[in-house]
Request: fold
Amino acid sequence: MTGFLVKRFLQALVVLFLVSIIVFTLLHLLPGGPARAILGPKGTPQQIEHFNHVQGYDRSLPTQYLMYLKRLVTGDLGESYKLNSPVLDLLTQRLPKTLLLTFMSTVLAVVIAVPLGLLQAVRRGKASDYALTGLAFLMYATPVFFLGLIMIILFAQVLPIFPAEAPQGETIGQLLGDISGLILPVVTMAFGIVAMFSRYMRSAVLDNLTEEYVRTAMAKGQSSRRIMVKHVLRNALIPLATLLGLYLPTLFSGALVVESMFNYPGMGLLFWNAAQGSDFPVLLGVTLVVGIATVLGSLLTDILYAVLDPRIRSVS
Amino acid sequence: MRSLRSKASAALALAAALVALTGCTHEAGSIAMGRTGGTPVEGGTATMALPPAATPNWIFPIGAPGYGASYNYAILSQLFTPVYDAVQEKGELVTHGPSTLGLEPKYSDGNKTVTVPLRKSSTWSDGTEVTSRDLEFWFNLVKANKVDWGSYSVGTMPDNVKKFEVVDDHTVRLHLDRAYNPDWFTANQLSLMRAMPQHAWDAKKDGGEVGDFDRTTKGAKAVFARLTQHAKSLGSYGSDPLWKTVNGPWKLAGWQDNGQVTLVPNEKYTGPKSERPHLDKVVFKPFTTADSEYNVLRSGGVDYGYIPPSVMAQKEKFEDKGYRVDPWEGWAATYIVYNFNSTHAGPEMNQLYIRQAMQHLVDQKAMSKVIWQGSATSTLGPVPVTPKSQYLSKKMAHNQYPFSVSKARSLLSAHGWKTVDGTARCVRPGTGDDECGKGIGKNDPLTLTLLSQSGSTETTNMMQELKSSLSKAGIDLSVRQQPLNSVLGNSVPCKAKDPGCTWDMSFFGTAGSWYYPLNPSGEQLFSTGASSNFGNYSDKKADSLIRAVQYAPDMKAVHEYGEYLAKQLPVMWMPNPAYQVSVIRNDLRGVEQNPTVTFAPSHWYFVKDSKNVKNVKKGADQ
Amino acid sequence: MTTTVTTSAIPGQEEAAQATPSLARRTLRVFTGNKLALSGVILLALLLAFCYLGPLVHPTEQIHTDLSRANLTPGTSGHLLGTTDLGYDMVGRLMVAGQTSLEIGLAAGLLATLFGTVYGAVAGYFGGWVDATMMRITDAALAIPAMFLLVVVAAIITPSKGILILIIAGVAWLSPARLVRGEALSLRNREYVQAMRMMGGGGARAVFKHIVPNAIGTVIVNCTFQIADAILYVSYLAFLGLSIPPPSADWGSMLSAGITYTQNGYWWLIFPPGIAIVLVVAAFNFIGDGLRDAFEVRLRK
Reply:
């Protein structure tokens, strides 16, 4: 077990290293670097040169990368060009808010998706299965920003029940204090996830229904409701829980769009604004944090799997 | 890449429209619409919304490169009175007035020396008098640290000052490296000067003694480094004692991490009475997206906000709710850069008649009216046509190249071009008067590539409209939309046949291409080899006229320069969008929308109309 | 935006590999028996007819602007769905934009599947350090959420049709790669692959001759979902400001452009392209789902 963990951990480190290289390279594809974007059309060649020198952009890419890594080891993520504050401070302000949004949406999605998927599986091939499956696919097929727009039109305009903007509080407490403002963003984000999870639940339940133990239980004459809850549901839920870890990137992607739509003050919005302004240190910082979260998520998933299913250990 | 914001804002805007439709309207105020007038009441808080991507992030009067967010300068000018500034007097822009520290500058010695008298009554908030020493302090710091100063370019301030002389406590004299045009020098050079509290800031390290350290280069560098260090700590602006010594009408009451700035009147302000604040508090509220601003504006959370141009069609809805909709005209020119060195179309760009034909195909009026919903004005030359100024001559206000497809066609056919299958081709190569011109070969097509800023519906539409109308004269324009960064990064000055010199035209003017200092001289834009002359326009006469604007002793020079370049088309003139379409609570008066994008909250006041105020406030609660 | 889970839950791949004519017929029967799948096919056919045959029936000017006819409301002077902010007929624009969306989606989906399949097959066949290296690369790419990557890309790239296809394929190939790699891992220990190795058969041959064909069921199902996702990506890219250069358009760019005018109540600029995207993506998903069910053997018993 320890050997497996150490191996997985080392793999995770390698992945993080690759993530930083990918992002670093991508950012440096910008023609002329960020200097033009930061200094604007009025920046003189001297100022651009000076900026590039101070920020190290006049050195070779590998050298710049090594410098970045060196600072990274000491926990220094650099300073935002636009916001005049350390990237680390910005991240510690914003990350918890994104995690809150993601967490609430996921919980809501699971609460809806599990019974939905179960129902579909049980009614397999019947009209209600078709209807629910069709609905799930329609939800899946709706771009999050279109869905958000429909939500705003329906519930903030035609029926002005909820505000169209997320709460703007500085702390998590303040955000939670304005729960009505959270409803549209959370629901919008949850919708997309429901579609995926309910499909997963449906096939997981169907798979389980064909397993030996279910047949045995049926043969023993146990009630189908009891079988459902005791065997099938439980066995389908365990992998669903571990799946959440793997879904983190998709969840973060959704959060980015939702945050931009509803002006939710999370990391996605920070990232979006940084991209508009070529704020490289912020872009790098956010991507790294998101990457770390994702890698940790999948690491946890693997560990969970290993704990639940000893066979994995020998294979991996 | 404004797209997301503007789209999301639009989404929220729909909310506005629909809410209005569902009967949630407010009674119109009982006071007449207007920018001024009314019965003033003292006190009150005004909240102004700042545009996205312009979060205030700098307080030190010497701006570092990259900290040029439009409002930094405007906000710190409330704390540190500028020596000279573009101020509005009776609707005209002038260099000094009650709100500036400097009085009328005097030029002598054949315009090679300028004497700057300072207002005498001014004191810092700790009681110390504002003197020439404070100006000298600024000059010493800037001279020793010019590369770290955002406003520096080679040959201008402080390079053009040979000697900085303190005449007495309230007079300084600058000995210049040559004769300058007094108007240009005051408007574009002296306006950079600031008085800074030498008695409080001139220390090499925190807690160290205050002395005359700025008078040596080494000392000036150390002092500058210390002040910059403080300025790089946005979170501490509100509490840092350094920024508490001010001489402006306002002082800082708070500067949040997100850039929200709160100003309260500086009760120790000793400037002219007309500059003393009426309000109790002014809040500058930054928004990361225009949509959130729109939402807050609708709910009455800001008194002075903005709407996207596309909402101009909904103007009446805001007026019904007690707001005035007032586009804020910018002191700017908007244009598409021609690349005269383009490997691909350099010879064509160099032909005036081709540029004239193309200008005839830009329907600025229709673009301003339909695409910008009336919030843009035509650009007719380098000098802004609106607002009126002494820089504009009668001739410049006249459009020399009105929209006309037939004129464009005849210009081309008169010079040996013939349209075959929709594309104009040169059939008479050569350098004669009725021939295509130097470097243009037989059968060469008139095809051009335009790099254009992406992310704005208005810009995308303008470029599509342009492409469509150019095609009517056989000019085939392909538009490559790129993020602003890439457009700026790709359209750098280049030489023909260089690998990066394949672009023909470039546009980055969604928010105006170029904001001028007070004097709209184009030395950075249109003189040969200038740093922002991205298309390498080069014309001997233009160069000498531009030099004259800087050096000649009178106003005639700027008129000649403006008229000549309006005709010569160094760039393609395009509609100049408003700086923003402002929406201001109608009972907030005295708001001058200074085209150089500064403001004077000291002049703002609320007017008596309790009923109207109540209505608006009630709106905020709903 | 990823279909990893939905598609990885296919238990019937192995059986599909040994498909016999009668099994193929049965597969077809199951597919046509699936009402959702059938409605997906019909929906797709209708959309294709609208986009490709529509312009023949309803020819419109989609290149030259006409500012004098901008923003006409639906029904005005023969414009069934009104006009855009530049005076283009909305119905006609939906047709040509649909062609672009479908073409980009199809090309990107196929490219992603092709590249991902080969990548996954190679990794799975060779195993060991080759597999480890290749999979760490996919892990790294997966660790950066697609939208974050696209936001950065949108800030640096000049879009064109080809570039859009490459970008979308660039974020979408990961899921088929992982799927096929899993297949390959299990197949490489099969007797015929083992036998081939012993006879000295080349790696490439084994990959293309046995592993890819054996994973074909998974690949086809995944490809359908990939196309659906790719069309979604086209709209997300437009939302981020990255779309096909005008005067061409795709449904995503039409939707994004329309949102600007929402406050003016120009609903006809928003809902038609939005609904078109939902319908076409759903159609592909219905078909993919039907295909998957059809390939599943175990549950049919």
Remarks:
- Chain A has 14 helices and no strands.
- Chain A touches chain B through 51 residues (CB under 8 Å).
- The radius of gyration of chain A is 24 Å.
- Residues 311-316 of chain A have pLDDT under 50 and may be disordered.
